[in-house]
From TrEMBL, chains A, B:
It comes from the Bacteria. This is Queuine tRNA-ribosyltransferase. Its cofactor is Zn(2+). Catalyzes the base-exchange of a guanine (G) residue with the queuine precursor 7-aminomethyl-7-deazaguanine (PreQ1) at position 34 (anticodon wobble position) in tRNAs with GU(N) anticodons (tRNA-Asp, -Asn, -His and -Tyr). Catalysis occurs through a double-displacement mechanism. The nucleophile active site attacks the C1' of nucleotide 34 to detach the guanine base from the RNA, forming a covalent enzyme-RNA intermediate. The proton acceptor active site deprotonates the incoming PreQ1, allowing a nucleophilic attack on the C1' of the ribose to form the product. It comes from Candidatus Sediminicultor quintus.
């Protein structure tokens, strides 16, 4: 079964929409934030913990799984869901972004990308066809087209080449993916250039994908520029298809994205920050290792209902982080994912009740970062 | 409330006993294995996970908590139970063993021990009175006397000095501890010398503690020697008090200890080994990172009912360990603690049904290590 996207309600004052995304592995309430499970695990979380946190979909990385344990092994296991014991939905990225950001690039051409593994330096080649083969083998619910993301900042010529190649690759991905029950999303590129974004989005839409991602943002450009790009890109995308802003997970950016019509988000930050002691409180990011929390016997966030906040104090959490205890990462991740989950729930409720802008204002007046 | 120990049944064919240890924080079924929560956390486990695993008592380390976060901070938090959010019982060791094994010793005298922290090299002094002050502040259910554990092997003279000092210190501990509702256990020393063990046990029993530990074993001596020491030491201890064999957690040694009349055990190995990929299977220790498990899609132990074995394959677990994922430690620890918990449950059932020796034979015929 491919995905089905249903819009339940459209905001009257913004471009936001409340929706449901139907997959083989459950229904996803949108707007949604997808936690990242890079190596077939959301770091420090068991699948039952994710389930308890109300998480309906996670993202996993083709690049990492291709290198380790190998996509054939995952296929042998019966696919990624079975391999990692996760019953919810999975979106896999194509590996494009990781090859460009993590691997040691050897050569990019229209044909594909030669790169060296960040783990052992071994040589690899991935092209659109291979990226589809990998994701079909992984068996994710949603696969992403193989794209080229130019670094930021790049000159217009370089960005244009990458954007055009992304369209050519999207076509090849569609062809290679034909016949699969998995849903394949296209990715809009075009860097920080509005005209390139519009042109790229229009060309991509011609190819008719069941969903569209906006890639290459939140890579160092000012937030205001990201919002401007969204302002001009989203209207080019069809209304009845899900829209996914890749790699964005800061609460403020999520709110701004939703207001501009985005339905899906992913980001490593809530989980990575959790492991580094940067915790999401209703008052903003809190650095729990700060000495002032040494003897603070209040919860991390007294407004939070998560397991961590209901059972432990800031002083204890700080002790765990200072002692490099695994439990620090576990409790921090539970909290940060609960925070994101609950933020998204509140956003959806606000959308349902036609008060998204009021919610945003109230939320951001407390969340100071 | 101090502890109360009740013997429900004595084995007809061995010295084993089935019992219940009543504490302020719940009833403990004995014989019991206590997981170690060195720094106020059983590594990689949330308290609710420990609870789900049926764990009734954990051990925590005074030495570590004294250094970090400091026992006054734990006292301010309302004691160790509240600090770490653990509702079950806690036994704290005195710090003696860790000072001798981890700290950089400066000077031991009858008065006490000068040592340098293994964390930052800072200078500290602990004596019996201080060890009691620390454990009273931590508020554990059971505290341990401050002892001197001579390294193995040591000459008889050195062991005798340490054993005599341990008795002198036990007296001072008892005096310093007087009036506390916490229960204080004495520790028998005497190394690998049977006559010293017997003398030491007899002197300790004269001081009348609510429970007795046998320390300084499983420190490098042959197993057969440890069993011989138990054979001559346990009979010196009163029948109606719990007996605790410190630092022992290998399934075979636990069985041999129980048969010789021991009620309580602790060891870091089931949790530490779990983090290193050495997992307890009914067929013996299994090194999950072994290449032969790469594409083994069966459970770690198909006889095991734990969350890990019910939901994940050896291939997935191996992948997690090879990728240094935190989930490896979580799932490995869940499994190893479940294994220990279930071993102890089966031992208690066998004791109840008067078939301990049969159980031991059957268990060890499968568990090959």
């Amino acid at each position: 079964m491919s995905i089905k996207f249903e819009i339940l309600k459209e905001s009257k004052t913004t471009k936001a929409r409340l929706g449901k995304l139907y997959t083989c592995h459950g229904i996803i309430d949108t707007p949604v934030f997808m936690p990242v499970g890079t190596q077939a695990t959301v770091k420090a979380m068991t699948p039952r913990e994710l389930d308890d946190l109300g998480i309906q979909i996670i993202l996993s990385n083709s690049y990492h799984l291709y290198l380790r344990p190998g996509y054939n092994l995952v296929a042998q296991a019966g696919g990624l869901h079975k391999f990692m014991g996760w019953k919810g939905a999975i979106l896999t990225d194509s590996g494009g972004f990781q090859i460009f950001s993590l691997g040691k690039l050897n050569k990019i051409s229209d044909e594909g990308v030669f790169f060296n593994s960040h783990i052992d330096g071994s040589k690899h080649f991935i092209n659109p066809e291979k990226a589809m083969e990998i994701q079909i083998a992984l068996g994710s619910d949603i696969a992403m087209a193989f794209d080229e993301c130019a670094p930021y900042p790049s000159g217009k010529y370089q960005v244009e080449i990458a954007a055009q190649r992304t369209i050519q690759w999207a076509k090849r991905c569609k062809e290679a993916h034909h016949g699969s029950s998995q849903s394949l999303f296209g990715i809009v590129q075009g860097g920080a250039f509005k005209d390139l974004r519009i042109e790229n989005a229009n060309k991509l839409v011609e190819l008719d994908f069941p969903g569209y991602a906006i890639g290459g943002l939140s890579v160092g450009e000012p937030k205001s520029l990201m919002y401007e790009i969204l302002d001009c890109t989203v209207p080019c995308l069809p209304n009845n298809k899900p829209r996914y802003l890749m790699g964005v997970g800061a609460p403020q950016s999520i709110l701004e994205g939703i207001i501009r019509g985005v339905d899906m988000f992913d980001c490593v930050l809530p989980t990575r920050n959790a492991r580094n002691g940067s915790l999401l409180a209703s008052s903003g990011n809190l650095s729990i290792t700060n000495a002032k929390y040494k003897d603070d016997f209040t919860p991390l966030d007294n407004k939070c209902q998560c397991y961590t906040c209901q059972n432990f104090t800031r002083a204890y959490l700080r002790h765990l982080y200072m002692s490099n205890e695994i439990l620090a990462s576990i409790l921090g991740t539970i909290h940060n994912l609960y925070f994101m989950s609950s933020l998204m729930k509140n956003i959806r409720l606000a959308l349902l009740e036609d008060r998204l802008l009021e919610f945003k204002e109230e939320f951001l007046s407390n969340f100071l970062n």
